[in-house]
């Protein structure tokens, strides 16, 4: 059981992420190798010349389905060593800047480590690279701070950098705070610097992430069966549509070009009566560059449901209806549709159905038809699970980006 008292006033915390593994790809062809396998443009990461940068990526199979998600950053230790060698070489008149060896750190879910290494090696061919599991050499931390103050705390970040940490804003959205890659031999001293933050269990990180509509890892992405744009890679800075060819590009590019993204993953929570505000829109991020109005990590509608309202079964069908007076389209009633207040046992069949995908406690992610989502008033979307229980649609962190992508062509 989560101690709700410990979360009632929680605005910021630090979380050790033990569920993450790290792969180093190093060599003169490292950039070329990864650039041909990822949905994002790693040239932007290298061109920034900053060890404080990171990029959100997907690795696809040849048919365009997602294998695994990742956060890729420059290997800070390698970058520092290479710069020192370059300076020495130039100082002796022996260097011309050629023969640069790149090194990247790929941050992934533990559950995909072996498959990820195998995937990277499968396409190695003659590329001059080494692919190394360096999970034991680092510890990964997430600093969650809904006030955004940590993101702008230059003094703290400078201290962490001086200690040899890779410090980076989470590339998916500012709401996810700061990620740290800490050398294992420095973890004790780093924890002293982070003492002003309450240390929380990793479950808190995952609950917060789910509440913001950000999927992560094998349980939520279903290896080899997911279309990246339905899982909001375009809204979470995970795709570069101008980078050129990469494995599996065709499906992603065609989906973007045609605009036919009829379904997306949204965050949901089991509905409770005792809430801070009657409208979920009061908890939405209005301006992505400014802290949200509600600065607690978990508002009341989430806190009061965490312990006593378990989420629906994974892959169970949901009944979704838009009750807005201006809504033109009504979902077609079928024998598989759950009617309000009438619990039914349903089988998950067609991809066209609204479904609950994955959850922890009362929170989770649902794949919903965008035609039933009123992005300007989420409360107009009424959802019931297969037991007839009401489910609340939460405002995702990327909500403001969705407005430009909800065109009639997309939801026809």
UniProtKB/TrEMBL annotation:
Q: Does the keyword Mitochondrion apply?
A: yes
* Presence of the UniProt keyword Transit peptide in the record: yes
| GO biological-process terms attached to the record | iron-sulfur cluster assembly
Main subcellular location of this protein, as a coarse class: mitochondrion
Q: Where does this polypeptide localize?
A: Mitochondrion
Region labeled Disordered — which residues? 304-352
Give the InterPro entries listed for this entry.
TrmE/GcvT-like, YgfZ/GCV_T_CS, YgfZ/GcvT
Keyword line: Mitochondrion, Transit peptide
The entry's cellular-component GO terms read: mitochondrial matrix
Output this protein's name. Answer: Aminomethyltransferase folate-binding domain-containing protein
């Amino acid at each position: 059981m989560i101690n709700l008292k410990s979360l009632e006033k929680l605005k910021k915390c630090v979380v050790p992420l033990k569920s993450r593994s790290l792969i180093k790809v190093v060599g003169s062809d490292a950039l070329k190798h990864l650039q041909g396998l990822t949905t994002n443009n790693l040239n932007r990461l290298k061109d920034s010349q900053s060890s404080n940068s990171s990029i959100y990526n997907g690795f696809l199979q040849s048919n365009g389905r997602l294998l695994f998600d990742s956060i890729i950053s420059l290997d800070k230790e390698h970058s520092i060593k290479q710069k020192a060698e370059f300076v020495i070489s130039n100082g002796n008149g022996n260097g011309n800047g050629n023969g640069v060896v790149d090194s990247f750190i790929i941050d992934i879910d533990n559950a995909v480590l072996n498959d990820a290494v195998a995937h990277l090696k499968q396409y190695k061919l003659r590329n001059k690279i080494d692919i190394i599991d360096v999970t034991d050499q680092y510890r990964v931390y997430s600093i969650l701070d809904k006030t955004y103050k940590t993101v702008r705390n230059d003094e703290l970040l400078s201290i962490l950098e001086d200690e040899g940490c890779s410090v980076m804003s989470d590339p998916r959205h500012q709401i996810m705070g700061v990620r740290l890659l800490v050398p294992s031999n420095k973890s004790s001293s780093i924890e002293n610097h982070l003492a002003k933050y309450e240390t929380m269990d990793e479950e808190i990180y995952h609950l917060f992430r789910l509440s913001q509509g950000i999927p992560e890892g094998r349980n939520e992405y279903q290896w080899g069966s997911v279309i990246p744009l339905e899982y909001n890679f375009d809204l979470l800075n995970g795709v570069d549509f101008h980078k050129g060819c990469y494995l599996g590009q065709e499906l992603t590019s065609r989906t973007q070009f045609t605009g036919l993204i009829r379904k997306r993953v949204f965050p949901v929570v089991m509905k409770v009566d005792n809430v801070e505000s009657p409208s979920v829109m009061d908890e939405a991020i209005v301006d992505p560059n400014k802290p949200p109005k509600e600065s607690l990590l978990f508002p009341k509608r989430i806190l009061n449901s965490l312990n006593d309202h378990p989420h629906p079964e994974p892959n169970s069908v949901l009944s979704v209806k838009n009750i807005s007076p201006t809504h033109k389209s009504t979902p077609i009633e079928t024998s598989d549709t759950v009617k309000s207040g009438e619990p039914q046992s349903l089988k998950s069949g067609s991809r066209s159905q609204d479904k609950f995908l994955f959850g922890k406690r009362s929170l989770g992610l649902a794949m919903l038809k965008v035609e039933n989502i009123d992005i300007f008033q989420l409360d107009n979307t009424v959802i019931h699970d297969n037991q007839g229980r009401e489910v609340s649609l939460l405002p995702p962190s990327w909500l403001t980006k969705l407005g430009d992508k909800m065109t009639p062509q997309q939801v026809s």
